[in-house]
Design brief:
metal ion binding; four-stranded mixed beta sheet; lyase; 2,3-Dihydroxybiphenyl 1,2-Dioxygenase, domain 1; MMCE/EMCE_epimerase; 37% strand; 138 residues; methylmalonyl-CoA epimerase activity; alpha/beta
């Protein structure tokens, strides 16, 4: 079976703040910015991975989500309880310094893990957990 990841989705409550973080701090490129029926989807990705995209979407964007579902998702997002993504980097410490300087919420300073990576963690402006890992010997 020939499978590849194409897109993943992250809920954000303010696309402009999310763009300032993902584009200006992390250096991801904006690939699409679409509005539809009062909602907005922004697609970003690493220049190093032109075929993989992160879609920054409104909380509860599914057309099948009930108003109660949308409210529950928005509340979980506000608490930082929704999952984010894990990025790899060649220099965890340099990335940490850059993201910390932006004022992002630090969850974990760079740490050597027993499973062979050095990683750190932050929350994006919406509260999503983002981890950044450097493989040992990278």
């Amino acid at each position: 079976m020939d499978l590849k990841l194409r897109q993943c989705f992250i809920a954000v409550d303010d696309h402009d703040k999310a763009l300032a973080f993902y584009r200006d701090v992390l250096g991801l490129e904006v690939r699409n910015d679409v509005g539809f029926e009062g909602m907005r989807w922004v697609t970003v990705g690493s220049p190093l991975q032109p075929d993989v995209e992160i879609v920054l979407e409104p909380p509860g964007a599914s057309p099948d989500a009930s108003p109660a579902d949308r409210l529950a998702i928005a509340q979980l997002l506000a608490k930082g309880m929704l999952r984010g993504v894990i990025f790899t980097t060649a220099d965890c410490d340099a990335l940490y310094s850059r993201v910390e300087e932006s004022g992002a919420d630090v969850i974990q300073e760079p740490t050597d893990q027993p499973y062979g990576v050095r990683d750190c963690a932050f929350r994006d402006p919406a509260g999503n957990l983002l981890r950044f890992m450097e493989r040992a010997g990278a």
